[in-house]
């Protein structure tokens, strides 16, 4: 069955389908892609989608789809006389006896082009960490903000949160680092929990000169968006609107993970990422994503594009891996293949 513009019964903005919505094998959509073709029920109901120009001028909007060509155009090539400190990144992740998350984030940052990665597992000595090209640093189990801020003097991005736990001293250090770090920051996993509900998170993020990048799944989104009123804070059906709302409220870039990922800035500009798949539904893949975002930030990509591009590359990397049995540890080398192909 052929659908014109969008299958009948499918919401063009959200991708939510009403009862009896048409299921097409192919959709010819006019002038430009409709968000509903890319989200929710849209991909299943639209079939193969072709955009047909019909002479209508398409003016620049505030929502775009990330494509493969953006990898080369957004990710700067290395300059001939560059050095490792031009794209250095600090990763604060993991805890003693639980260093997997830190390893995934660190390896991903390296493979995504961070020239130097300083690896901090709060409470673990460097001798406890696997030998690698990353430089392992010793920081206290709690009250580690001063030590990390010292490392950031020579680095260009900070990844914080995967696997660090929720001890009060850890939460306090995360909040201070997010508030005071002068470099771009990506906050993931336990780091998002440390920000607390909406009012507390907004206070932590308020003084930042560069927006932080937050990477919630639906459950983390609900906790970040929760207000004192007790109103339902789940993302709901319109995921672009949800990402925009939280980004505007917190003054941060919000990367809302899902089968289609929505990435939004406080000013409403947003990207959709459709490269992901169910292959990524396995432990540790989010930690890999945080490392890729950190590397792209360290390489000088602006926070909104760094987050959107990282999500796209992450999905493309998974597509190169095993169809069944892909694990997080497979992804960093696949990330390197994806970005190497774009830059030759």
Description:
With 344 residues, the chain is an alpha/beta fold. The chain folds into two domains: 2-59, no CATH class; 69-343, Ribokinase (UDP-N-acetylmuramoyl-L-alanine:D-glutamate ligase). The protein has helices spanning 42-46, 69-74, 100-111, 145-151, 168-180, 190-195, 198-205, 218-225, 239-250, 285-298, 303-320, 331-343; strands at 2-4, 26-30, 48-52, 63-65, 88-92, 116-120, 135-137, 157-160, 185-187, 213-214, 253-256, 261-264, 270-273. The strands form two sheets. It has a ten-stranded mixed beta sheet with strand order 4-13-12-11-10-9-8-5-6-7, sandwiched between helices. α3 (100-111) links the parallel β5 (88-92) and β6 (116-120). α3 runs parallel beside α12. The longest helix has 18 residues, at 303-320. The radius of gyration is 20 Å and the shape is globular. It starts with a strand and ends with a helix. The relative contact order is 0.14.
In short:
The chain is 35% helix and 15% strand. The protein has 344 residues and is of the alpha/beta class. The chain folds into two domains: 2-59, no CATH class; 69-343, 3-Layer(aba) Sandwich (UDP-N-acetylmuramoyl-L-alanine:D-glutamate ligase).
Question: So, CATH architecture of the largest domain?
Answer: 3-Layer(aba) Sandwich
Task: Please report the distance between the alpha carbons of the first and last residues.
Answer: 40 Å
Q: What would the CATH topology of the largest domain be?
A: UDP-N-acetylmuramoyl-L-alanine:D-glutamate ligase
Total number of helical segments? 12
The strand count comes to 13
Fourth-tier CATH superfamily name of the largest domain: Ribokinase
Query: What is the highest CATH level, the class of the largest domain?
Result: Alpha Beta
The pLDDT mean sits at 94
Classify the secondary structure makeup into a structural class.
alpha/beta
Question: Could you spell the SSE succession in H and E letters?
Answer: EEHEEHEHEEHEHEHHEHHEEEHHH
What is the percent of helical residues? 25-40%
Give unreliable regions as ranges.
Answer: none
State the shape.
globular
If strands are numbered along the chain, what order do they take across the biggest sheet? 4-13-12-11-10-9-8-5-6-7
Whole-number count of domains: 2
